[in-house]
Amino acid sequence: SIEEQDNLSQEMKEMILSLPRERGWRTPYLYLFQGFWCQPAEIQAISTFQNHFQAKKSDVFVATVPKSGTTWLKALTFAIINRQNHFISSKNHPLLSFNPHDLVPFIEYTVYGKHDKIPDLSNIQEPRLFGTHIPFDSLPNSIKDSNCKIVYICRNPFDTFISSWCFANKIKPPHLPTLNLEDAFEMYCNGSVGFGPFWNHMLGYWNESKERPKNVLFLKYEDMKEDVHFHLKKMAEFFNCPFTLEEENEGVVENIIKLCSFEKMKELEINKIGTFGRNFENKHLFRKGEIGDWTNHLSPSMVDKLSKVIEEKLGGSGLKF
Ligand code: A3P
C-alpha cells in the first residue's frame, strides 16, 4: 500500500490518496494525476521536476508514449548529437557498452527518482539529453518557454497495446496476478494505462509540433521503420547539426542506423545480460521490433473497438496510423 512505501514523503502520500485510482498494469494501482495515469513514485518525481527544473536552451528531450520506440529514439538521438565526440564507427562507442536509457536518462525514474534529493543538473555537459513519458501539458514552463528541442515518438495504438501488455507481464512483481489480454485491452481503450490516455498524450505533442515545429519534432515508429535514413537526416536538421555531404559520403548516416538497429542492439552483451536501475533487465526492452504483431493477438471485435476509439479521439486531428 501507499503507506508502506518508504520512498514517498508523508505529504505526497496524502496527496496521492486523494486522487482517483484504477487497477494498474504492473503495480497495484495507477492514479490520475494532472489528467494522466501514473504510479506513486512517478508522481513524486514529476512534482519535483515541475518545481525545480531549470531548462537550458540547448537541452534536448526525447519524449515518448511508453512502448513506442523510446529505446530506439534515445539511441538515435544520442548517436546523432554526440557524433563529434563519439565517432560512430569507434569500437568504444558508448552505445556498445551502455543501454540507451543510461545515456539519455529518464526524468521521472532516474533524474528525479531519488526522493530525498533535488539533483544539481547545472554542470552536466551541454547539450543535456533527457528522456520522459510526461505529457506535454505537464512539462514545466521552464521547458515550454525556452528554446529547447523535444523529439517525440508514438506508434500505432494496436502495436503499442500489445507491446505494453507483453512488457507489463514480463516485468511485474511475481506477487501480482498475470494481466490477461482482455482486461488490459479494456483498460487501454478506457485510457487507463501508464501516462495515458494515449490519445491525449499524442495530441498534446502533435498540436505543439504544429505550433512550434522548430522546437517539437513529431515522429511515428512506422514512418521511422519505413525510411529511417530520411528521418535521421530530419532529426539532425532539427537538432541544428545536419549531416554534411562528406559525412553522408563516408556512410555516417548508415552507420548510425546500423549501430541503433534492433538486431544490433538486441545482441549486445549490455542488452542481453545487463540491468538498469535497481533490478530491471535490459533484455525486456527488445522483443520483436516489428510492425503489425497485433494481428497475432487481437480478435476482430477488439480491432473494431480500438479502431472506433482511435477514430473518435484522433479523427479530427489529422493524426493517422
Ligand atoms: P515490440 O514489443 O513490439 O517488440 P520502448 O523502447 O518505448 O519501450 O518500445 C519498445 C518497443 O520498441 C518494443 O516493441 C521493442 O522491441 C522495440 N524496439 C526496441 N529497440 C528497438 C530498435 N533499436 N529498433 C526498433 N525497435 C526497437
Short description:
The protein has helices at 10-17, 40-52, 70-81, 94-97, 100-103, 107-111, 141-145, 157-171, 181-190, 198-211, 221-226, 228-238, 245-250, 252-259, 262-267, 269-272, 300-314, and strands spanning 21-23, 29-33, 36-38, 60-64, 129-132, 149-154, 216-220, 275-276, 280-281. The protein is of the alpha/beta class and 321 residues long.
Indicate the topology.
Elements: H1 10-17, E1 21-23, E2 29-33, E3 36-38, H2 40-52, E4 60-64, H3 70-81, H4 94-97, H5 100-103, H6 107-111, E5 129-132, H7 141-145, E6 149-154, H8 157-171, H9 181-190, H10 198-211, E7 216-220, H11 221-226, H12 228-238, H13 245-250, H14 252-259, H15 262-267, H16 269-272, E8 275-276, E9 280-281, H17 300-314
Residues 64, 66-72, 159, 163, 166, 260-262, 265, 285-289, 293 line the site of adenosine-3'-5'-diphosphate.
